């Protein structure tokens, strides 16, 4: 396993880099260190921000510095913690109707799969929340099956509705706001990820797992309007 590198960021943070490529092993190491140092915080630490391949550790530069923080983190790298790599499993509902999935045919053509096979392959993926970023509630999921991985588009498309289920390379995401994206849109979800709860504003925690479950249009419309199926 690659030895992590420590990269100073401004005068108040240290980036711990575990690798160059996204993998389950690298994600697990990021999440492990994140838990260790939040359970046993080094002196002066303020906040941690986990991502797929690295962990940003912010600290108070008035009481510590990069060298002291690096020493504290290195001392915790081999700590044994009771950390479940599975996380909580969340069901995310998705409707794959054509008008909600404008890139379904393009992904089918790019992968050599039929549209139904694209949907079934997407449903079969084992997804895990690796990080939040870009916009509120944007949970980046690893686990897109290799046969379904397509590159992002050459140019972003504007005004993509919230709830769009999008993929690019090995990652998947459910949008929470109407925003542009260059990712491929496979469907739309009524599952609420960005919530009006200051104590828990997002549905997922980093490390949680996601299982997509297919619903039909009637179920989607009912749930979108706040009903139940």
UniProtKB/TrEMBL annotation:
The keyword Lipid metabolism does not apply. Keywords: ATP-binding, Hydrolase, Kinase, Nucleotide-binding, Transferase. GO terms for molecular function: ATP binding; hydrolase activity; kinase activity. InterPro entries: CT_C_D, Cyclophilin-like_dom_sf, PxpB. It holds the Pfam family CT_C_D. The keyword Kinase applies. SUPFAM superfamilies: Cyclophilin-like (SSF50891), PH0987 N-terminal domain-like (SSF160467). Residues 4-204 form the Carboxyltransferase domain. PANTHER family: 5-OXOPROLINASE SUBUNIT B. This is Kinase A inhibitor. It comes from Aliiroseovarius pelagivivens.
């Amino acid at each position: 396993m690659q030895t992590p590198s420590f990269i100073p960021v401004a005068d108040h943070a240290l980036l711990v880099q575990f690798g160059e490529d996204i993998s389950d092993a690298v994600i697990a190491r990021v999440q492990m260190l994140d838990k260790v140092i939040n359970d046993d915080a080094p002196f002066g630490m303020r906040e941690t921000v986990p991502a797929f391949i690295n962990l940003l550790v912010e600290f108070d530069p008035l009481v510590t510095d990069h060298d002291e923080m690096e020493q504290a983190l290195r001392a915790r790298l081999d700590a044994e913690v009771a950390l479940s790599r599975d996380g909580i499993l969340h069901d995310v509902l998705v409707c794959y109707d054509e008008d909600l999935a404008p890139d379904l045919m393009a992904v089918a053509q790019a992968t050599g799969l039929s549209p139904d096979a694209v949907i079934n392959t997407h449903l079969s993926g084992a997804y895990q929340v690796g990080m939040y970023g870009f916009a509120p509630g944007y949970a980046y999921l690893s686990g897109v099956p290799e046969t379904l991985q397509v590159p992002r588009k050459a140019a972003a498309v504007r005004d993509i509705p919230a709830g769009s289920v999008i993929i690019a390379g090995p990652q998947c995401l459910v949008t929470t706001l109407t925003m542009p994206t260059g990712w491929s849109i496979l469907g739309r979800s009524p599952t609420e990820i960005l919530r009006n709860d200051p104590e828990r504003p997002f549905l997922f925690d980093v490390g949680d797992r996601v299982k997509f479950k297919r619903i039909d249009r009637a179920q989607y419309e009912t749930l979108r309007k706040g009903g139940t199926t």
